[in-house]
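Structure first, sequence second, as always.
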């Protein structure tokens, strides 16, 4: 299996989304911060703290694949108004099969600590053999303040 990296645009951490190795990502799952709109030293606003590839009805014509996980507000001073997640799904040869964009409710600083986390599910848009071909994924998170 190949590894892709988890990428967020605003207040971002790169985290491996697949097993294996790639030359373009952090080694050993070490988070790397990136922010296209600010200094690379800035802390992320929202991080993906959990994620996994989930299959249902495996081996049937109704097989489905999705990425499920949790985002968390990590910047105590920020109040994001919008959080968008884009998952790209790849086959075993690292060829892009398709991508899907989902919006999640933005966690707020006024929420108690447990409410600063939001669950998400990003479904691969095909079923059956096409879903069975999914071998990996990466996720990009975009936050608007």
């Amino acid at each position: 299996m190949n590894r892709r990296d988890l990428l967020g645009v605003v207040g971002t951490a790169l985290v491996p989304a697949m097993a294996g190795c790639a030359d373009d990502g952090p080694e050993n799952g070490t988070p790397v911060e990136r922010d296209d709109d600010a200094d690379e030293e800035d802390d992320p606003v929202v991080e993906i703290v959990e994620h996994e590839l989930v299959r249902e009805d495996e081996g049937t014509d109704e097989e489905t694949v999705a990425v499920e996980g949790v985002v968390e507000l990590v910047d105590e001073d920020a109040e994001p108004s919008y959080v968008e997640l884009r998952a790209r799904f790849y086959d075993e040869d690292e060829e892009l099969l398709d991508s899907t964009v989902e919006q999640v409710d933005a966690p707020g600083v006024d929420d108690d600590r447990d409410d600063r986390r939001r669950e998400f599910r990003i479904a691969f848009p095909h079923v059956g053999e096409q879903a069975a071909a999914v071998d990996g994924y990466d996720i990009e998170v975009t936050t608007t303040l």
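Margin note: Confidence is low (pLDDT under 50) at residues 1-41.
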